[in-house]
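Record type: monomer structure entry
Structure origin: computed from sequence
Chain ID: A
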Amino acid sequence: MIHLKSAYAPISDAITNDIRVEVLARYSPDGSQPEAGEWVFQYTVRITNQGMDTVQLLSRHWIITDALERTREVRGPGVIGEQPMLAPGQSFKYSSWCPLPTASGRMEGSYQMLRADGSLFEVEIAPFVLRSAYTIH
């Protein structure tokens, strides 16, 4: 993925404690119903262990903000029903989706990770924009 940090990009890239999290988001017109006030966005995440220790993703915390600055938080175990283990140099990639009541918004958050020695740490998911194809900024 491209390393691009912009307040207006549907791409994010962050490295925290040797764990790289890259996200690419796009609008999903097939899943959206703008006439009913629902815009759906798909996002793909790649998590790469750039460190020397095996780690496990335990939980996620998303902060989702719509165009009217209304925020909701989503917390839960793992991602897409999995709590992947990542050996040094290994990546895990998954895709998911997010509905919004507005045509644009943003997401950011963190993952809670576990090292083989039992220590817990947080990994940043840098902010990225959710924007439908018809949004003007």
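Annotation 1: DSSP finds no helices and nine strands in the chain.
Annotation 2: Residues 11-131 form a domain with the Immunoglobulin-like fold (CATH 2.60.40.1470).
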